[in-house]
Prior knowledge:
Aminopeptidase, Acetyltransferase (GNAT) domain-containing protein, transferase, elongated, Acyl_CoA_acyltransferase, GNAT_dom, 2 domains
Amino acid sequence: MNSVHFTSGMGEPAVVITRVAGRQWHAVEDDRVVGRGDASRRPDGRIFLSVDAWHGAVFDQLADAMLADLPKPLYTVVDEADPDVTSHWERVGFMTRRREWEYLVPTDPRVTGLGSVLPPSDVTIVAVGEAEEVPLRTLDRAIRDEVEAAVGWQEMLAEVLPRLDGATLRDPSKYAVAAQSDRYVGLLRVAPVTRQPRIGLIAVRSDQHRRGIARALLAHVLGSLHRGGIETASAEVNESNGAAMALFEGVGARRASSNLELVLR
């Protein structure tokens, strides 16, 4: 284990930063742990950092030790409503890469206006948990290839990123799909979080865009949640995804918070 000593104020004990495990650091002052740092590798291979420290100076010392040990680029995610934490990361060199809005989405069709929305005549909506795994995985791969060829899959949420082993779809039971003849052309992923399910992904094959399939998928899933007694769902949307923002805001969703993804290159 490597340790780095930092001098505190006059007469105060030194802060000792120690890498206690492969991806964990502790800051110790006078035999007390006064800060912790963690590095986690996301499914796409990117390394994200987190620091929990009692004082700003300890935050900087932990961050400096971690940055010295880890390869760049490095990433972190912060709540935009917490400017102090954001400024700590900016002080050690991180810059904003993107913003994600968290939306609260009503499920009542009288609010969303989706009660009468139907898919195109040649498309059928398959309910959450009823999709066949093989065509669902085929659709997932096709959509990922299209996204990668356009904006790149790193612009997607962490929960839908591919793992290092190449697997991309972990739990088929969380998906509703749009079926056309003998293939699937659209999907919507729902994470069953207690009391407020989270919509993690809505995607439609590029040759089926502008047909109302995404809206029909959303209408089906929100309607099902409403009938199950769920009043709101949540969704996270990249600020650069204008189509997704328009889709959610068009059904009465409201912005509840935002996160910033920061990067040090």
